Structures are given as structure tokens and as C-alpha cells.
């Protein structure tokens, strides 16, 4: 009797364990999945030599030779559309009556929805009957965007296309019965749009051997930080788990990447969250993609930085999520702001930015040599949300007039101006005036050469704008008293030599001078830069009084200014000093205030000529001095002191 009971209990336990490991039926093939018992690796975790000069990375060095050719169309476009859309859009970031804050496409993780339930009640009901690929592509093309990147598979593991690798796909797991990726690819081709895929190569909540799902499985890379801490990596702490995760890479990630390339011939691949996998696995995925299509353009999130490795292995660098401000940086890069604060559709997120704001973000990116990939999150029925449509249509109307100032332009050689930004094509500047001068006088600072002609880009007749040089570094233009466009009015300026510039920035005596920390020159130490989102666009990491943030400037005439420091304070108060030529202001940081504050420091007199504005600590700061966003030098006149 005891033996029978023991046999029965063992059988019940085995069945229970089998049910736990099967969990969701959204895997590649059930006979290919391994158990979740840690596998002792037969050889060291590293399967390749990941040092920068190793023979195992020769494929990457070979790819760099043809990089310039790959990036021609991407650079020329400057403006693209990011689309986060999958079954999660059905929920709109709400599950069982509870609205979740954060990215809508992360609802499965945020709500800890078991993957069996997610497949049945979310993916199984995903039927976007209002999806119209031609309408999407036409809307995007009219917005002035020239390329599209859409989610083929996000972190939930569901393929939004017809996948032969996994049954967890649009045709086999949903009632829709169509391949929206094939339809959108055809529509983009018809509308002259380059096309690419976002593919979550390192994060997969639906796979027993994938990383990230720690509510159905004891997998690394999730919110519980199993097998590691917030500061360490699971593959460094527990290399014995790597072979299990490697099965996911070999059986799903690499096969689906190759499948997307072979089936749809995309122009781009956009990878994400590489820190969820060991770097050598990410390198294997990237190598496979490069071999399948050497001309494909790949972003920087394929492989995470690692000791002895380059900063990234992609063709260009991606900014942090939702970046809207950008530090000066070399090379090619791409910003990925969203129309609201979520990438996937979120019903409760109505924080949509204005078209004027996003137009200026586009200009700021292009002025600094970058692209803007603006994200929208269509709804679960396949319709683009009305606020997103309105934003795209408004930007499109601006682009109808001003596209020449964006497409095909390169990083400007001019310093930032009080009135706005500039872009450039060879010896033509496009002055993007955000703050239009109501007195009819616009001053361009920092250009030393000859202006041949200037006109409003909105003027089809190209009527010349009168101009004159007022000193060695300043050109003055006579402009209308009313701005042609509220978002950005563009003046075309043809010059003899666009390289003939001075880096000193003109301090206006009529407009607010916002000296962003991102645009400053850091001296004397390693500063920490925020990721560029509107709540994290400052510079911190002030550890000693030899660290300075500086701005070379000049004034055509002396002036008096109110000085405001815009910063996020820390708990400790520290004394800081602002120097401008021979003038000095000092104060103590305010403590225990949340978010960025504007600290009025008083008035200062600035002399004409070149000088350097500096901010630094008075002594070694306690903790950190501040998280500096900007210094404002606001001109003072009689009556507004």
C-alpha cells in the first residue's frame, strides 16, 4: 500500500512539473524545449572570443568596410516612423479593470499575466479587422517620414507575421488570418518608404528557455532579478544557465531573424534589450543577420557594451527611450521619441505632445547629425489613434513647406542660436527660428564668411532678404515682424564657405539665452548625462571643484541679464559659482525639492566681446552638486529689472 501511494505521489509530482514547464504553448516546437533544471555547461560560457581584435569578430570588421554605403538612404531620410503594435494593443495597458502606467506593450509583464492566459485571452482575440496597410503607409508618407520600423516580435514572444519557426504567430494563434507585415511591406514599397523590423532578440516572455519571464518560469532577466542583483548580470553570476538560454537563441531568435530577412527583405533591423542575454549570444545573432543580408542597416542595441569590446556593433547609435534633448555627439545616431509616453497603445495615456514640440525635436536631432524615429502605437483594431493622426498630419503640413531643411541635411557647423537651431547642406544653412524676433531683426552669430543670398523657405519666389554684417562674427537679417510658422520658420542662407565659423555662441540682448548643459563643454572629469527624456535631460556627476560646464560665448554689445539656473537638486546643499568673463555670481543649491527647479541667482553685467561662461562647485561637493539642465541669461531692459 505504501509503495502504491509512493508511486502515485511520484506520478502526480511529475505531471505537475510537466504542466509548469509546458506552461504556454507558444514555443518553437515542444519537442525542442529543454527542462528548466540548470545545465552544467560542457565548456566555458564564452563560445567566442569577444575581445575587440579577436579573429572571431572578423565578420564585424569586414562589415565596417561597407558601412558608409549601407547608411546612405538612412542618413538622407532623417525622419522615420517607429510603430509598436501587437496583441497587447487590445488591452490598451489595462488588465482586469486595472490601468497600468508605463509602456502599453509591457502589459503582460506589468500585470504578470500567465502566458497561457495571455495567449488565450489576448493573442487569441487579436483580430484587427480595421487594419489597412495602404492607409498606414499613406499617412506616414504624407507626414514627411521616409522609413518605417515596426515590431515583428516584441518581448511577449508573439510573432506579428506568418512565422514558420513558431506557431505563436499571427496566422496560427489569432483569428485574423492575414499577414500584416507582408501587407505593410508592400504598401511601403508602393509609397516609396524604406521598411524594417523591430525584433526583440534577447527578451522573450513566452519561451521556457527565453529570458525575462519569472512569473511562469524561474528565468533570468526579469523583475525579480533571479540569479543576479540589479548591479550584476545573471550570465556572470550563474554561467551554468547560459546553455539553456542558448537553446532559445538557436531555436527561435536566430531562425526568426533569418526568416524575416528571407521572407520580407527588410532594409533595417532594430534590436533591443541586449543586456538580457550574454554578449556572445547577441554577437551570434548579429553575425547571422549580417551574413544573411550584408546591406541591412542595424541599430546599436544588438549587443551591450562589455569589457574589451567596442561601445556597440551596430551601424548607428540609438538614444535612450523617449529622448527629446540631445547632447553633442559624434557619428550617426537616431532618437526615438513617442507621441505620448508609451510606445504601445495605452488608452489612459493622453499625454500627447504638440506637433510644434515634436517638429522642434526633429530639428534639434537633425541639427546635431541625428535622425528622428517618431513612435506611434496603433490600437488593437488596427486603427491609428486620432491624436497620432493629428500629430502626423500637422508635421506633414510643416514638412510640405520645409522638407528641404531636413532631408539630405548634415550636422550644422554653426553654434546654437538664442532663436533656435540650424541644419546644413554643403554651403547652404537652414536657420530654424523657434523664437521669432518681433522687431524684424534676426542676428546670426558665429559665421565668419560671406552670405550670398537669403530668403524664407516658405517663399516660392525666393525673394531676397536684406542682410548686412555688423561685426566679424555677426550677420543681421531684416525679416518680417510675424513668424511664417509657429513651430519653426526657416530662412535659407547661401554662403561661400559653411566651414568658416567660430564656436563662440552669440548672447542675445533681446531674447532669452538658454544654455543647455547638453550643449556645454565638460571640463575636468567624467560627468553623467541624462538619457534625454524631458525628465532626465540634465548633467550630474560633479565630484570635485575642478569640474566645470562651460559655454564659449560672445556679445556684440554689453548688456545686463537676469541669471537663472535650472537644475534638479540633491539632498545635500552645496555652494556653486557662475563666472562670465570677470563677472561672478554664487549661491547654494536648494535641497529636498523634487524635479527640476528654476533658481533665480540675481543679475549680472556682461561686457562685449568673447568670453567663457562657467559653472562649478565652490569646493568638493557633498554627494553631488546638482543635475544641471540649463543656465538662462535673460536680457534686462528699463522697466523689467
From TrEMBL:
SMART domains: Alpha_L_fucos
Domain Glycoside hydrolase family 29 N-terminal: 67-403
Pfam family, one: Alpha_L_fucos
Source organism, top-level taxon: Bacteria
EC identifiers of the protein: 3.2.1.51
InterPro entries hit by this protein: GH (IPR017853), Glyco_hydro_29 (IPR000933), Glyco_hydro_29_N (IPR057739), Glyco_hydro_b (IPR013780)
Enzyme class: hydrolase
Keywords: Glycosidase, Hydrolase, Signal
SUPFAM superfamilies per UniProt: (Trans)glycosidases
Entry similarity comment: Belongs to the glycosyl hydrolase 29 family.
Protein name per UniProt: alpha-L-fucosidase
Source organism per UniProt: Flavivirga aquimarina
Amino acid at each position: 500500500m505504501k509503495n502504491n501511494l509512493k508511486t502515485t505521489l511520484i506520478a502526480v509530482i511529475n505531471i505537475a512539473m510537466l504542466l509548469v514547464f509546458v506552461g504556454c504553448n507558444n514555443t518553437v516546437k515542444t519537442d525542442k524545449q529543454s527542462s528548466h533544471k540548470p545545465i552544467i555547461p560542457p565548456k566555458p560560457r564564452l563560445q567566442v572570443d569577444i575581445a575587440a581584435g579577436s579573429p572571431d569578430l572578423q565578420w564585424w570588421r569586414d562589415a565596417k568596410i561597407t558601412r558608409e554605403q549601407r547608411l546612405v538612404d538612412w542618413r538622407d531620410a532623417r525622419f522615420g516612423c517607429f510603430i509598436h503594435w501587437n496583441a497587447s494593443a487590445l488591452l490598451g495597458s489595462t488588465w482586469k479593470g486595472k490601468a497600468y502606467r508605463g509602456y502599453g506593450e509591457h502589459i503582460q509583464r506589468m500585470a504578470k499575466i500567465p502566458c497561457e492566459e495571455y495567449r488565450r485571452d489576448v493573442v487569441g482575440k487579436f483580430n484587427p479587422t480595421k487594419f489597412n496597410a495602404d492607409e498606414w503607409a499613406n499617412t506616414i508618407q504624407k507626414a514627411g517620414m521616409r522609413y518605417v520600423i515596426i515590431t515583428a516580435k516584441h518581448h511577449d514572444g508573439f510573432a506579428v507575421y506568418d512565422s514558420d519557426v513558431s506557431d505563436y504567430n499571427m496566422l496560427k494563434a489569432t483569428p485574423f488570418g492575414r499577414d500584416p507585415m507582408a501587407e505593410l511591406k508592400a504598401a511601403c514599397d508602393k509609397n516609396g518608404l524604406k521598411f524594417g523590423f523591430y525584433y526583440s532578440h534577447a527578451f522573450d516572455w513566452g519561451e521556457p528557455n527565453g529570458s525575462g519571464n519569472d512569473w511562469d518560469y524561474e528565468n533570468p532577466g526579469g523583475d525579480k532579478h533571479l540569479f543576479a542583483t540589479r548591479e550584476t548580470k545573471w550570465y556572470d553570476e550563474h554561467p551554468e544557465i547560459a546553455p539553456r538560454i542558448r537553446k532559445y537563441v538557436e531555436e527561435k531568435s536566430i531562425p526568426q531573424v533569418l526568416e524575416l530577412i528571407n521572407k520580407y527583405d527588410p532594409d533595417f533591423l532594430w534590436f533591443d534589450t541586449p543586456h538580457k542575454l550574454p554578449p556572445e549570444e547577441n554577437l551570434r545573432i548579429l553575425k547571422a543577420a549580417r551574413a544573411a543580408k550584408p546591406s541591412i542597416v542595424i541599430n546599436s542595441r544588438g549587443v551591450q557594451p562589455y569589457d574589451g569590446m567596442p561601445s556597440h556593433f551596430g551601424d548607428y547609435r540609438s538614444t535612450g527611450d523617449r529622448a527629446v534633448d540631445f547632447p553633442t555627439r559624434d557619428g550617426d545616431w537616431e532618437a526615438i521619441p513617442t507621441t505620448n509616453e508609451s510606445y504601445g497603445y495605452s488608452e489612459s495615456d493622453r499625454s500627447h505632445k504638440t506637433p510644434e514640440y515634436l517638429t522642434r525635436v526633429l530639428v534639434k536631432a537633425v541639427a546635431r547629425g541625428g535622425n528622428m524615429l517618431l513612435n506611434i502605437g496603433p490600437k488593437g483594431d488596427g486603427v491609428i489613434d486620432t491624436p497620432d493622426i493629428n500629430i502626423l498630419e500637422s508635421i506633414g503640413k510643416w514638412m510640405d513647406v520645409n522638407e528641404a531643411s531636413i532631408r539630405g541635411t548634415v550636422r550644422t557647423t554653426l553654434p546654437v542660436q538664442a532663436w533656435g537651431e540650424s541644419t546644413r547642406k554643403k554651403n547652404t544653412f537652414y536657420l530654424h527660428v523657434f523664437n521669432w524676433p518681433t522687431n524684424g531683426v534676426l542676428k546670426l552669430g558665429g559665421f565668419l564668411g560671406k552670405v550670398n543670398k537669403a530668403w524664407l523657405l516658405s517663399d516660392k519666389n525666393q525673394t531676397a532678404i536684406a542682410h548686412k554684417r555688423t561685426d566679424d562674427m555677426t550677420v543681421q537679417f531684416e525679416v518680417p515682424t510675424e513668424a511664417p510658422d509657429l513651430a519653426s520658420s526657416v530662412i535659407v542662407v547661401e554662403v561661400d564657405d559653411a566651414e568658416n565659423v567660430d564656436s563662440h555662441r552669440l548672447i542675445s540682448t533681446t531674447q532669452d539665452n538658454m544654455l543647455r548643459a547638453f550643449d556645454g563643454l565638460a571640463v575636468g572629469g567624467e560627468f553623467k548625462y541624462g538619457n534625454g527624456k524631458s525628465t532626465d535631460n540634465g548633467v550630474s556627476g560633479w565630484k570635485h571643484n575642478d569640474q566645470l560646464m562651460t559655454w564659449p560665448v560672445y556679445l556684440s554689445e554689453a548688456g545686463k541679464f537676469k541669471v537663472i539656473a535650472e537644475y534638479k537638486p540633491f539632498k545635500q546643499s552645496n555652494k556653486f559659482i557662475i563666472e562670465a568673463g570677470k563677472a561672478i555670481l554664487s549661491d547654494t543649491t536648494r535641497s529636498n525639492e523634487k524635479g527640476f527647479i528654476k533658481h533665480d541667482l540675481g543679475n549680472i553685467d556682461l561686457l562685449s566681446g568673447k568670453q567663457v561662461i562657467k559653472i562649478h562647485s565652490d569646493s568638493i561637493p557633498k554627494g553631488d552638486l546638482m543635475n544641471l539642465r540649463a543656465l538662462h541669461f535673460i536680457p534686462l531692459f528699463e522697466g523689467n529689472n
